[in-house]
Amino acid sequence: MGAAKQLYVKRSHFVTLDEAKENTQVHMKNGGSYNALKGELIATNLEGDQMVITQKQKEDYIPVPMSELSDLKAKMAKGYMEMGDINLEISEAFHHAENEAETTTNSLVNGEYKEY
Question: Is the pTM for the entire model greater than 0.85?
Fold first, then answer.
């Protein structure tokens, strides 16, 4: 997993902010997804939930230096960020499998599926 990312706080919750390097989809825990455009920020909270914010909205977030957190809280924050990365990987794998299943089902229903 690498070094801890910069934490930001907005009101009562911590998030990490990653800039979208290209247009991408952000997947939610409920199975939905939405687009993040290149240059927008993807905010991930400590539970792995994601949302898209604009560069202008970043002003509402206050950076929190990791050194200001106690050792235990810093370890917990790092662990939550790592869990968020794992949740994202699982969500992307699920999304890929769901798309594959839908494509196969459509092929079967339309009679296009041919077993070799």
Answer: no
Structure token pair of residue 106: 């459509």
Q: Is the pLDDT of residue 116 over 60?
A: no
**Distance, CA of 20 to CA of 22 (rounded, Å):** 5
Let me know: does 49 contact 26? Beta carbons within 8 Å. no
Kindly state the DSSP code that residue 48 receives in the 8-state scheme: S
Q: Which residues pair with 19 in a beta bridge?
A: 41
Q: Which two tokens stand for residue 37?
A: 């455009």
C-alpha span between 47 and 43 (Å, rounded) = 11
Question: Looking at the DSSP assignment, which residues form a beta bridge with residue 62?
Answer: 9
C-beta separation of 64 from 7 below 8 A = yes
Judged against a pLDDT cut of 80, whether residue 28 lies above it is answered with no
Beta bridge partners of 61: none
C-alpha to C-alpha distance for 51 and 67, rounded to whole angstroms: 26
Q: Distance between CA atoms of 77 and 4, rounded to whole angstroms?
A: 8
Characterize the bridge pairing of strands 62-64 and 50-53.
unpaired
